[in-house]
Automatic annotation (TrEMBL):
Transferase among keywords: yes
Co-factor requirement: pyridoxal 5'-phosphate
Record EC number: 2.4.1.1
GO terms for MF: glycogen phosphorylase activity; pyridoxal phosphate binding
Record-given protein name: Alpha-1,4 glucan phosphorylase
Gene Ontology annotations for the cellular component aspect, listed alphabetically: cytoplasm
SUPFAM superfamilies (alphabetical): UDP-Glycosyltransferase/glycogen phosphorylase
BP terms from Gene Ontology: glycogen catabolic process
Taxonomic path: Bacteria, Bacillati, Actinomycetota, Actinomycetes, Micrococcales
Organism of this sequence: Microbacterium pygmaeum
Modified residues (N6-(pyridoxal phosphate)lysine): K678
Alphabetical keyword list: Carbohydrate metabolism, Glycogen metabolism, Glycosyltransferase, Phosphoprotein, Pyridoxal phosphate, Transferase
Catalytic activity: [(1->4)-alpha-D-glucosyl](n) + phosphate = [(1->4)-alpha-D-glucosyl](n-1) + alpha-D-glucose 1-phosphate
Length: 829
C-alpha cells in the first residue's frame, strides 16, 4: 500500500480509470501481451496453465485502474470504514467472479475463442483458495463481495495460509487428508508487498519504567516475525469499485536471523526461519471445535497485530488525532479468533502512543464489534493464562486490568454477588486458569451480534444473560446472508436468465425484487421453463460428477442433498438412518422397490482430521452407499453419492441442481446456516428443524413450502431436564430399531459388527444431539416430501415461491443491517 503522502506528480502517474479497451480485439492484445511478457511463451507453445494465468492477468489489468483509484480515494475521502478481521476467507474461484464484476464475461469468451481456446477449459484449472473451513469463512467472503458492491469503504484482513483446507480423498470409504498446495501453479490474483511488511513481536517480558515522572509499562519481545501483506482485488458488481482483501504471510525477520548467523550456527538460523514461517503455513481444519494450540494463538496475534498497525500507518494521515479513531474505523471481529486485537490496540494506544488508560479504553470500546457464530460450549475459545503469558506477556497484563476494572463496575452495579462475579469474569479459574475470549470481546465490543434471530436470542438469554443485563442495548442480531452474484448469477445461470427475463436485471443488487416471481408461480408456462432450468442444472451436475468422480447420477430422481461440514450436531446420522430405513424396507421385502420414490442422496462433508466420530460417520455413509448402490433389489431407485472434497466449486454445481435441502441440526445448535439460504435461492425445498436461519426461511417461504420436523429448542431443553434416554426411543420405534440393528449387524461392513459399533453405542447410550428423539418426526416429514414430489407441478410452484421469497437472504441486506445497527459507515459513492 502507498503511504499517505502523495508521490504522484507526473500526469501519467495514475492510469486512466477506464483501463484497457473493452473490445474483443483489445482483450486479445492484452492477453497475448501477458502470455508473451508475463509467462514468456508464445500462444503456440503455451500450456493450459500459461493460458489460464495470462487470462487471469488480463482480467486483473482491466480492474487495476479502478483499484488504484479506489485506494487513492479511500485515503483522500477519510470516511469511516470497516476493517473486517477474519482468520478465514473461503473465497472460491476468482476468475468468473472477476469477469462478471468487470462485465468482461462475453468479451473474454470471444477473445479466447478467437485464440482457439475454450474459456471453459481454463476455468477448470483454477485451484480455489480454500482459506476457510466452512460457514464462517464463506460468510466473510460473501461480506467483502457485498461491501464492494455497496461501495462501503472497507478492507478485509486475514491470513494467507500456504495450505488451505485439506483436500479430502476416500480410501475404502475412509477420509484421508491431503495437503492443499493451492499456490504451486501460480497465484495471479495476489499482489505481495514485502516493502510494506510489519514487524510482529512475540514472547519476551514486560518492564516498568519512568517516563518523566509517569510510570509506564512496555513490552520487550523475545523474537519477531515479519508480516508481509498480499493484496487481493475485491471488485464490486458492475459499480466500478474495487476494494482490498489484505492477507498476511509470515517471513523470518532478518534481524532475528542475523543474531544466530553471527553466532555461527547456520543450520540453526535456517531452522529459525522455517519456525517463523510456520505461522502462516496451514489453516487449522477444525470447524466449531477449536484446539488450544500455541501456533493457532500465534496466527491470531500475527494477523490482527499486522492489520491494526497497517490501518493506523496507512489509512490515517500522520497528524491524525487518535482520540477521533472511532470516527474513522470499526474493527469487526469475526468470532473470537481475532479478539487478541483488543489488548493489542490498547497496547499501541497506551504504551506506544502515550495515551491515558481511560481514554484509550473509551476509544477501544467504540472501535470494536463482535460477531458470535456459535452456541456450542466447546467452540467458545479459551486461552490458558500460562500460554498467553509466555507468548504475549504485555497483552495478558492488559487483559487482567480490563477484567479488574470490569469486575469492579459489576460489583458497583450488583453488589458483592460472588457467584455472578465468577460467572462474568474474563478470567476463568477452572479447569485451568484461562481467558474467555468471548467475554473479552463482549466487554470490549460496542455491539455483539448473533447470526440469526434464534441464535441472537439464545446468545442473550442462555450464554451471556449477565452481560445482556449489564450492557443494555449492546446485543443485537444480524441474520446472515449470501452473495447473489456468486450463488445465483454465476452458479445458476439458467435461473438467472429466467429471472432477468421475468423481472429485468436489477435483482442482482436488489434481491428483494425476487418477490416479483410470486405472480409467475401461477403461470404454467413459467413453471415449465423453471422446471427445465432445474433439469438442466441436474445434467450439469451429472457431467461434473462423471468427470470428477466417475459417478453416474440416475435420471429422473429427486436430488436430496446434505452438504456441510461433518459434525454430530448437524446430524448427518439422522440422514443415514433415513436412508437405511428406506433400504431396509426394500431389502426385507416389506416394501416393493417400485413403490419407493426414486431418490439420489448427495452428501458432501469434510471432518476435522482429529474428530474420530465424524470420520466414522463418513465411513458409514460411504459403506451404506456401496451396499445400497450395488443391491439389485433396490432396482436403482435409491442412490447414495458422496463426492469427496466438497468445496465452494462443487457447491456451485450441487446446490442449483438440488430438489431437497437437508437442514436437520438439533434445534438450538446451528447458529444460522448459510447453505440453507443458497438452496432456497436455488429453488430447493427445505426439510429442516426449527433452528438457526431455518426459522426465518420458513417464516418467509411459508409452511406449505417447507418441511418442518423435530423438537423445538424449548422442547429439547425440556427433554434434557426430564432425562433423555435414547434407548427408550429405540425400543419404542420399530423402524428405528430395524435401521440401527441393520447397521449393528455388519450389513454395511462385510459382516464385521465392530466397525460401526462405536456409532451404534453412541446413539443408544449417549446421543448428545438427540438423533433418536427426532427420528420418527423426520421419517414422517420425509413421507410428506415424497407425497409432495409426486405432484411435480405443485412442487415446481413451491420451488418458485422459495426463490421469490428468499431475497431477504442476500448478504447485501446483512451488510445494510451491519451498517444501520453496528458500523454506521455509509457508502461512499
Ligand atoms: C468456529 C470456531 C469457533 C467458533 C465458531 C466457529 C464457527 C461457526 N465456524 N463456522 N461457524 C458457522 O458460521 C456460520 C456463519 O455465521 C453459521 O451460519 C453456522 O451456523 C456456524 O456453524
Amino acid at each position: 500500500p502507498a503511504s499517505a503522502a502523495p508521490v504522484a506528480t507526473h500526469p501519467l502517474a495514475v492510469a486512466p480509470v477506464t483501463g484497457p479497451p473493452s473490445s474483443v480485439d483489445g482483450f486479445v492484445r492484452e492477453f497475448l501481451n501477458n502470455l508473451n511478457y508475463e509467462q514468456g511463451v508464445a500462444l503456440s507453445s503455451s500450456s493450459p496453465n500459461d493460458r489460464y494465468l495470462a487470462l487471469a492477468y488480463t482480467v486483473r489489468d482491466y480492474l487495476m485502474a479502478r483499484w488504484l483509484e479506489d485506494q487513492r480515494r479511500q485515503r483522500e475521502v477519510q470516511a469511516k470504514g470497516v476493517c473486517y478481521l477474519s482468520a478465514e476467507y473461503l473465497l472460491g474461484r476468482q476468475l468468473d467472479n472477476n469477469l462478471l464484476a468487470a462485465r468482461l464475461t462475453d468479451i473474454a469468451t470471444e477473445a479466447m475463442a478467437a485464440c482457439g481456446i475454450d474459456i471453459d477449459d481454463l476455468r477448470q484449472l483454477e485451484v480455489e483458495p480454500g482459506l476457510g473451513n466452512g460457514g464462517l469463512g464463506r460468510l466473510a467472503a460473501c461480506f467483502i463481495d457485498s461491501l464492494a458492491t455497496m461501495s462501503v469503504p472497507s478492507t478485509g484482513y486475514g491470513l494467507r495460509y500456504e495450505y488451505g483446507i485439506f483436500r479430502q480423498t476416500f480410501v475404502d470409504g475412509e477420509q484421508i487428508e491431503q495437503p492443499d498446495a493451492w499456490l504451486t501453479l501460480g497465484s495471479p490474483w495476489e499482489f505481495p508487498h514485502p516493502e510494506a511488511a510489519q514487524t510482529i513481536g512475540f514472547g519476551g517480558y514486560t518492564e516498568k519504567y519512568d517516563d518523566e515522572g509517569v510510570a509506564r509499562s512496555r513490552w520487550v519481545p523475545g523474537w519477531t516475525v515479519q508480516a508481509v501483506p498480499y493484496n487481493y482485488m475485491v471488485p464490486g458488481y458492475h459499480n466500478g469499485r474495487v476494494n482490498t482483501l489484505r492477507l498476511w504471510s509470515a517471513v523470518a525477520s532478518s534481524a532475528f536471523d542475523l543474531r544466530i548467523f553471527n553466532a555461527g550456527d547456520y543450520a540453526e538460523a535456517v531452522r529459525a526461519q522455517t519456525f517463523a514461517e510456520n505461522i502462516s503455513k496451514v489453516l487449522y481444519p477444525e470447524d466449531s471445535t477449536p484446539q488450544g494450540k500455541e501456533l493457532r494463538l500465534q496466527q491470531q496475534y500475527f494477523f490482527v497485530a499486522a492489520s491494526i498497525h497497517d490501518f493506523l500507518e496507512h489509512s490515517l494521515s500522520p497528524d491524525f488525532d487518535l482520540a477521533n479513531l472511532p470516527d474513522r474505523v470499526i474493527f469487526q471481529l469475526n468470532d473470537t479468533h481475532p479478539v487478541i486485537a483488543v489488548p493489542e490496540l490498547m497496547r499501541v494506544l497506551v504504551d506506544e502512543k502515550g495515551m491515558k488508560w481511560d481514554a484509550a479504553w473509551a476509544i477501544t470500546q467504540q472501535c470494536f464489534a463482535y460477531t458470535c457464530h456459535t452456541l456450542l460450549p466447546e467452540a467458545l475459545e479459551m486461552w490458558s493464562v500460562d500460554l498467553l503469558g509466555r507468548l504475549l506477556p504485555r497483552h495478558l497484563e492488559i487483559i487482567y486490568r480490563i477484567n479488574d476494572e470490569f469486575l469492579a463496575a459489576v460489583r458497583e452495579r450488583f453488589g458483592d454477588d460472588e457467584m455472578r462475579i465468577r460467572n462474568m469474569s474474563i478470567i476463568a479459574d477452572f479447569p485451568e486458569r484461562s481467558v474467555r475470549m468471548a467475554f473479552l470481546a463482549t466487554v470490549a465490543g460496542a455491539k455483539v451480534n448473533g447470526v440469526a434471530e434464534l441464535h441472537s436470542q439464545l446468545l442473550r438469554e442462555k450464554v451471556l444473560p449477565d452481560f445482556d443485563e449489564f450492557y443494555p442495548g449492546k446485543f443485537t442480531n444480524v441474520t446472515n446472508g449470501v452473495t447473489p452474484r456468486r450463488f445465483v448469477r454465476l452458479a445458476n445461470p439458467g435461473l438467472a436468465s429466467l429471472i432477468t427475463e421475468a423481472l429485468g436485471a436489477g435483482w442482482t443488487v436488489d434481491l428483494e425484487r425476487l418477490r416479483g416471481l410470486e405472480a409467475f408461480a401461477e403461470d404454467p408456462e413459467f413453471r415449465a421453463k423453471f422446471a427445465e432450468v432445474k433439469a438442466a442444472n441436474k445434467r450439469r451436475l451429472s457431467d461434473v460428477l462423471r468427470t470428477r468422480d466417475g459417478f453416474e447420477v440416475s435420471d429422473g430422481h429427486m436430488l436430496d442433498v446434505m452438504v456441510k461440514r461433518l459434525h454430530e450436531y448437524k446430524r448427518q446420522m439422522l440422514k443415514v438412518l433415513h436412508i437405511v430405513t428406506l433400504y431396509e424396507g426394500i431389502a426385507s421385502g416389506r416394501v416393493a422397490a417400485a413403490d419407493v420414490q426414486p431418490r439420489t442422496f448427495i452428501f458432501g462433508a469434510k471432518a476435522a482430521p482429529g474428530y474420530v466420530m465424524a470420520k466414522r460417520i463418513i465411513h458409514l455413509i460411504n459403506a451404506v452407499g456401496s451396499v445400497v448402490n450395488a443391491d439389485p433389489r433396490v432396482e436403482g431407485r435409491l442412490q447414495v453419492l458422496f463426492p469427496p472434497n466438497y468445496n465452494v466449486t462443487l457447491a456451485e454445481r450441487v446446490i442449483p441442481a438440488a430438489d431437497l435441502s437437508e437442514q436437520i441440526s438439533l434445534a438450538g445448535k446451528e447458529a444460522s446456516g448459510t447453505g440453507n439460504m443458497k438452496f432456497a435461492l436455488s429453488g430447493a425445498l427445505t426439510i429442516g428443524t426449527d433452528d438457526g436461519a431455518n426459522v426465518e426461511i420458513r417464516q418467509l417461504v411459508g409452511d406449505d413450502n417447507f418441511f418442518l420436523f423435530g423438537m423445538t429448542e424449548p422442547e429439547v431443553e425440556a427433554l434434557w431436564a426430564k432425562g433423555y434416554k435414547p434407548s427408550d426411543f429405540y425400543q419404542a420405534d420399530e423402524g428405528l430399531r430395524r435401521a440401527i440393528d441393520l447397521i449393528a449387524s455388519g450389513a454395511f461392513s462385510g459382516g464385521d459388527r465392530s466397525t460401526f459399533e462405536p456409532i451404534v453405542s453412541n446413539l443408544l447410550y449417549d446421543d448428545r444431539f438427540m438423533v433418536l428423539a427426532d427420528y420418527a418426526s423426520y421419517i414422517a416429514a420425509q413421507a410428506r416430501v415424497d407425497a409432495a414430489y409426486a405432484d411435480q407441478d405443485a412442487w415446481t410452484r413451491s420451488s418458485i415461491l422459495n426463490v421469490a421469497r428468499s431475497g431477504f437472504f442476500s448478504s447485501d441486506r446483512s451488510i445494510r443491517d451491519y451498517i444501520d445497527r453496528i458500523w454506521h459507515t455509509p457508502p461512499v459513492l
